[in-house]
Amino acid sequence: MIQIQGAVLERIGAPRPYSESRPISVVDVELDDPRDDELLVRIETAGVCHSDLSVVDGNRVRPVPMLLGHEAAGIVERFGDGSTAERDGVRVGDRVVLVFLPRCGHCTACATEGLTPCEPGSAANNAGTLLGGGIRLHRHRDPIYHHLGVSGFATHAVVNRASAVPVPRDVPPHVAALLGCAVLTGGGAVLNVGDPRPGQSVAVVGLGGVGMAAVITALTYRDVRVIGVDQLPEKLAAAQALGAHETYTPAQVAAAGIKAPVVIEAVGHPAALETAVALTAPGGRTITVGLPPPTARISLSPLGFVAEGRSLIGSYLGSAVPSRDIPRFVALWREGRLPVEALVSSSVRLGDINEAMDHLADGTAVRQLVDLA
Ligand SMILES: NC(=O)c1ccc[n+]([C@@H]2O[C@H](COP(=O)([O-])OP(=O)(O)OC[C@H]3O[C@@H](n4cnc5c(N)ncnc54)[C@H](O)[C@@H]3O)[C@@H](O)[C@H]2O)c1
Ligand SMILES: [Zn+2]
Ligand SMILES: [Zn+2]
């Protein structure tokens, strides 16, 4: 067991601003030793994603207290079985990307090449445990729940081997961290589901970390136009700076009657999905990656889908197999075609995590990184 420092969400649904209500406290936590199929990782950096905020504001109800953070990278310090050499392709000292849905590799969902989220992995995430059901985080013997098998807003984490993908050392920690959620999710939706043809356009609704990752991934395709849609002018300007060919607010894109064969919704609000559906061209695909509250509903014309041969597809974790797809993103980044670092707005200290949640909720940041090194 070691003592670590971590950002623990104590209660759900605290009023804003979080800088005053302070629902997350940075505290000393006991971290148990890793078990056989687990790793101890020293966290270097962790990104602040809307899926963290959704736990804080109660849109996605999870058990508390929970140590948040699910987009992180760090260095492997120890294996659960005590070995120090290579194990399943990972060595002590390797930099690993932590991914927020472990794939068990054995269930029927795991046989779908990434299209369906792993069943035991999803069950563990919902229960706030590691894959296999364990909880390694405690405070005075009381359990602290894991966030999506990672809990990366901390100096160290114990994760299942299936939650870690090694990357070469030339991939810096801030790039590695973003590969684990924003890039895998937004980029994976483009590579694995949208896969635009030359001459087609890709529209992205919602230009936060996930949507911007979809934008930069779509820009890696030759002869593909990229359209960014967000309600905030600053986000439209940021997407243009990254190379988006056209940008619009939801009202502007509706008024202009624009249609695209591949449309990605990365907001997590029903109005944004309605915008995305209306933007989809005949024969096209609306790919939804946003995570609204479970009670959210949208209004759709079924006839529109049939008469125009359109489809609506949900994509979790970018429909990715992380061990297959993270190297694809690393290769694009190394070729200079995927500017992942451009998604970083600022670095914050662990103690400023409540303020970081306010910035994310206000829409004033793309990706903030919590620096733990
Ligand atoms: N499917 C997955 O595996 C997965 C993984 C990570 C995140 N997510 C979800 O993806 C969504 C985006 O995450 P993020 O971290 O990029 O969030 P974010 O808060 O950084 O970005 C959301 C963006 O949407 C914009 N927006 C809000 N309402 C809008 C509207 N009606 N129309 C157009 N734009 C609007 C905001 O201005 C903001 O720029 C969240 O719901 C998150 O929980 C899903
Ligand atoms: Zn995320
Ligand atoms: Zn599985």
TrEMBL record:
Q: Which UniProt keywords apply?
A: Metal-binding, Oxidoreductase, Zinc
Under Pfam families, the record lists: ADH_N, ADH_zinc_N
The record, for Gene3D superfamilies, names: Medium-chain alcohol dehydrogenases, catalytic domain (3.90.180.10), NAD(P)-binding Rossmann-like Domain (3.40.50.720)
This protein's cofactor list reads: Zn(2+)
Determine if Oxidoreductase is one of this entry's keywords: yes
Q: Which InterPro entries match?
A: ADH-like_C, ADH-like_N, ADH_Zn_CS, ER, GroES-like_sf, NAD(P)-bd_dom_sf
The family line of this record is: Belongs to the zinc-containing alcohol dehydrogenase family.
Q: State the protein's name.
A: Alcohol dehydrogenase
